[in-house]
Amino acid sequence: KNPLSDYIADPDICRSLESRSMVVKKARPLPVEAIVRGYLSGSGLKEYQNSQTVCGIKLPAGLVDSSKLPETIFTPSTKADVGLHDENISFDKMVGLVGKDIAEKVREISIRVYDDSVKYALERGIIIADTKFEFGILDEELIIIDEVLTPDSSRFWPAESYRAGVSQPSFDKQFVRDWLTNSGWNKKPPAPELPADVVAKTAEKYREALKLLTK
């Protein structure tokens, strides 16, 4: 049975939407993003270089770009409105936004899912440097409300070429970020249109990650 038939009477429409649609429910999003890091990169690297911390978490001296962290860390950020930029925050500030019980539960779930996923991916040749989860409340229950562990929300690095101290090649949208940075865009809307070759190269990287992770 096509599960869409519970919502759409026309069987032809159901068939046309099968495998490319989802039935969803409206949840109340938490005003934070749950970011988990196993390696030092991106905004975490920038903060570390300034203060030797990430989201208030003190890290050892001497770490460099792409260093593996001594242990997985939970580094939340604000969930900015469209057109604005997220801001890294401390766990204490997250507690102030969502409450202690929810903050601790989000942290525990995020780290557990990340650590389990890191082991799976590494066996298939991919390092998951960091990732982001989004949570919400539905019927008084905490749930994950967005996609998880895709190249859109994670940094995927090829394990065979990994070495600390340099920026890593990746299977994720870092390719797009790098192009936007080099384009001179001031990070204010509207964003410049991506060239066809950048779109094609990004899609190729996504497909390569999918092939490795599902083999």
Protein architecture, described:
- The protein has 215 residues and is α+β, with helices and mostly antiparallel strands.
- It is built from six helices and ten strands, in the order H-E-E-H-E-E-E-E-H-H-E-E-E-E-H-H.
- 35% of the residues lie in helices and 20% in strands.
- The strands form three sheets. Strands 2, 5, 6, 7 and 10 form a five-stranded antiparallel β-sheet that branches. The chain has a three-stranded antiparallel β-sheet with strand order 1-8-9, with no helix packed on it.
- The chain is globular, with a radius of gyration of 19 Å.
- The relative contact order is 0.13.
Overview features:
alpha+beta, 215 residues, five-stranded antiparallel β-sheet
Write the layout of secondary structure elements.
Layout: H1 11-17, E1 28-29, E2 32-39, H2 42-51, E3 53-54, E4 57-58, E5 68-74, E6 77-78, H3 91-98, H4 100-122, E7 126-133, E8 135-138, E9 141-144, E10 154-158, H5 174-183, H6 196-213
Antiparallel strand pairs: 1-8, 2-5, 2-6, 2-7, 3-4, 7-10, 8-9
Helix pairs in contact: 3-4
